Amino acid sequence: MTGTAESPELRIPRGDLLRSRVVSDVGTTLARALDRGLTGYATLVPQETLLLEGDARGVVTFAEGVPVLAYNTVSDSGGPDALAELAVPGPYRVELYAVDGGALETAHEEEALRVSPGAAATELADDQALADRTRDAAPDERLDADRDDDGDAVAAFLEDDERIEAIREQARSEAAERASEWGLDDALAEGNGDGFEG
């Protein structure tokens, strides 16, 4: 399986097919990969894709059962964005492949496509218990990297005063619009006067 010319890092070797079926819950496939300690990948084709665009699919790779990369071949997006796009109601056509231990090393060096160990379980299967099991099986360096990334993202957000203020202003504006739509303007105005006791 090969990516675009601009993305040579997406080259994934053809693996040995272990399983091919339609499932209502991707968590079953993720749990199977985890239990087997699979190094390989799964292709995911959502039902709506089967009906509308038969060549569209997502790819999730595994190292010893733990998801590493996610990629959406339709939008050419990877990482958390790809998981979010693939998180649609099932069923899915799923194929699970095994590859030799070192065959995915080059692809797994592509940081932009990486996902945190438990992200596929929470995004695609809404299964917190499976996410916890997956994190427990992940190597320490993956967990440390994820914690650093999360901490950096939160710190950067909290330091962005303009962004926080913009979010607050948007929330105030949306609340005012809803109040107007629901005919609550007068009630809110009365609430600011003497008509209500605190």
Overall description:
By secondary structure, the protein is α+β, with helices and mostly antiparallel strands. The protein contains eight helices and six strands. The chain has a six-stranded antiparallel β-sheet with strand order 1-6-2-3-4-5. A hairpin with a 4-residue loop joins strand 4 and strand 5. The radius of gyration is 22 Å and the shape is elongated. The protein starts with 15 loop residues before the first strand and ends in a 7-residue tail after the last helix. The N terminus and C terminus are likely disordered.
Task: Describe the structure concisely for a colleague.
By secondary structure, the chain is α+β, with helices and mostly antiparallel strands.
- Helix proportion of residues, in percent? 40-55%
Strand order within the widest beta sheet? 1-6-2-3-4-5
Number of helices: 8
Enumerate the spans where pLDDT stays under 50 for 5 or more consecutive residues.
2-9, 148-153, 193-198
The description of the largest β-sheet is: 6 strands, antiparallel
Structural class: alpha+beta
Tell me the distance between the termini.
Answer: 66 Å
State the oligomer. Answer: single chain
The overall pLDDT, averaged over residues, is: 77
Overall, the morphology is elongated
How many strand elements?
A: 6
Amount of beta strand: 15-25%
Q: Output the radius of gyration.
A: 22 Å
Task: Write the H/E string, N to C.
Answer: EHEHEEEHEHHHHH
